[in-house]
């Protein structure tokens, strides 16, 4: 069993803490989630952060009035101890110049959504027909290819997101681990998507533990079936239960 002071806990949001929704704004947050995360953060001496593709401000809205350390936009934004750095749309003129093209593409396809996050842009096709989903994926791949070098394409579950090339959850977690209260602790990262696989591999290289949520091949060592199981685990830890992630089912 790990001591709480040994663990730095990093949590993806969509598909991990909450169930995936048809639209990004339709996510339902369990009323007990934020209070439990606050209690668990206290138990971990502050070493709890959310690592997500969402902007920090959106996570704040979902978990209000609680405020957590957050790496947003896959690490483009990072807030630690209340200080937010990165994430300004003004720093990404090349990407901003291509947003109208993606918006025009989506306007011609039913149920394809553009999520403009300022420093990154996501194209969602979860609700689209197979043909429109194929067109949307091709369009975002084409724009990403034109921006290659400065930006990269990150594919997830029915979504393609163009993000700054240096932005990964792996980099974000390593940045947290360089400063208190995370420094010197073992990283434990929970995520559900292929966008999390780079971080699983990185955490393992550093002696930490990745926990994959849901099915699929993974670099994580452990697995939980769904966000409901994640919440049950975190609620138990927040209530003072033993923190022993190495005993979770193998991936």
TrEMBL record:
<comment type="function">
    <text>Removes the phosphate from trehalose 6-phosphate to produce free trehalose.</text>
</comment>
<comment type="similarity">
    <text>Belongs to the trehalose phosphatase family.</text>
</comment>
<protein>
    <recommendedName>
        <fullName>Trehalose 6-phosphate phosphatase</fullName>
        <ecNumber>3.1.3.12</ecNumber>
    </recommendedName>
</protein>
<comment type="pathway">
    <text>Glycan biosynthesis; trehalose biosynthesis.</text>
</comment>
<dbReference type="InterPro" id="IPR003337">
    <property type="entry name" value="Trehalose_PPase"/>
</dbReference>
<dbReference type="Pfam" id="PF02358">
    <property type="entry name" value="Trehalose_PPase"/>
</dbReference>
<keyword id="KW-0378">Hydrolase</keyword>
<dbReference type="InterPro" id="IPR036412">
    <property type="entry name" value="HAD-like_sf"/>
</dbReference>
<dbReference type="InterPro" id="IPR023214">
    <property type="entry name" value="HAD_sf"/>
</dbReference>
<dbReference type="InterPro" id="IPR044651">
    <property type="entry name" value="OTSB-like"/>
</dbReference>
<keyword id="KW-0460">Magnesium</keyword>
<dbReference type="InterPro" id="IPR006379">
    <property type="entry name" value="HAD-SF_hydro_IIB"/>
</dbReference>
<keyword id="KW-0479">Metal-binding</keyword>
């Amino acid at each position: 069993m790990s001591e709480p002071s040994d663990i730095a806990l990093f949590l993806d949001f969509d598909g991990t803490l909450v169930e995936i929704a048809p639209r990004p704004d339709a996510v339902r947050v369990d009323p007990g989630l934020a209070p439990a995360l606050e209690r668990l953060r206290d138990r971990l001496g502050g070493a709890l952060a959310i690592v997500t593709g969402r902007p920090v401000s959106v996570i704040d809205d979902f978990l209000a009035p609680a405020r957590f350390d957050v790496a947003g936009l896959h690490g483009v934004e990072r807030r630690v101890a209340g200080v937010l750095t990165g994430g300004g749309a003004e720093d990404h003129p090349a990407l901003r110049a291509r947003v109208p093209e993606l918006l025009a593409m989506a306007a011609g396809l039913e149920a394809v959504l553009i999520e403009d996050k300022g420093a990154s842009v996501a194209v969602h096709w979860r609700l689209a027909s197979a043909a429109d989903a194929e067109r949307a994926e091709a369009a975002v791949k084409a724009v990403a290819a034109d921006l290659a070098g400065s930006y990269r394409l990150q594919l997830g579950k029915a979504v393609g997101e163009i993000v700054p090339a240096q932005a990964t959850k792996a980099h974000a977690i390593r940045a947290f681990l360089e400063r208190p209260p995370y420094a010197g602790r073992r990283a434990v990262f929970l995520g559900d998507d292929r966008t999390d696989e780079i971080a699983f591999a990185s955490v393992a290289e550093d002696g930490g533990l990745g926990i994959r949520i849901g099915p699929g091949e993974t670099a994580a060592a452990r697995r939980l079936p769904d966000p409901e199981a994640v919440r049950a685990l975190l609620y138990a830890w927040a209530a003072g239960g033993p923190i022993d992630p190495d005993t979770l089912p193998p991936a």
